[in-house]
Amino acid sequence: MTDSEHNAWLEAALANTLAGEPVENITTSSNEIGIHDAYALQRELVGRLESHGGWGEVYGYKAALTAEPAQQAMGISEPIIGVLFEHAAYQADSATAVATDRPVLLETEVGFTLRKEITAPVAEDDVFDAIACCCGMIELASPNLQQRPTSADLIANNAASYGCIAGASTAHPLDIDVDALPVSLTRIDAEQQALHTAMAGSVMAGQRDALIWLINRTLAQGYELRPGHMLMTGSIGSMHPGKVGRYRAEFGALGDLTFALD
Predict the structure, then answer these.
(1) Tell me: the pLDDT tens digits for 15-69?
(2) Which of 193, 197, 208, 241 has the least CB density, counted as fewest CB within 10 Å?
(3) What kind and span of H or E run contains 193?
(4) Longest dimension (CA), the chain
(5) How many CA atoms lie within 13 A of 189 on its CB side?
(6) CB–CB of 136/183 below 8 Å?
């Protein structure tokens, strides 16, 4: 990929991301791009989104493709990360209504809020020391690409990051058994439709493991981890097309989260 092609893709990706229009797959013009170069493009796209200001400040970071079958389908051996922005980050209450400008996929997740800056890799014995609290989350994921993506396409276009909804109930992860949380998503229109039920510990080797991986991979990619940033560790259960309607997610000790998609 030449410098001019590189810049042209970034300019078009920025414009389309802001407008809610599908972005051209980077592999269309550079089919040999690897994971390292895809992350370099992601960092540049994220930097342009920050500089533009239309999506606000960085809200946090997310893990994607945490399930091994999803990784195998993409030809990779570990999850990927993306950056979340404030523009579509909601706090849930009974009146939470979300209007999206592009198709989204709904995922139930656990989010961890940082209480302090992290500048060095963390391990099992100290990772929760950096956490203020955790809560139930809904991710509003959107690949927003013109064609079926490869792993490089997903990474370059910020890992399908779009928005999220944070639950009102919080706890410190040392005060509850996060992995034992039963998590479910139900559509609650005229007729209730159960979409999935799963355990929070089904992500990677458990929530602590997933959080350690996400923090250390985020640092390795050159991003900053600041107090207040939200870290979403990956989808619990299946993802579902975000259809117009009302939904309830249940997270055991972390309470319920009700929202509507308009």
Answers:
(1) 999 999 999 999 998 888 999 999 999 999 999 999 998 899 999 999 999 999 9
(2) 241
(3) strand 192-199
(4) 54
(5) 9
(6) yes
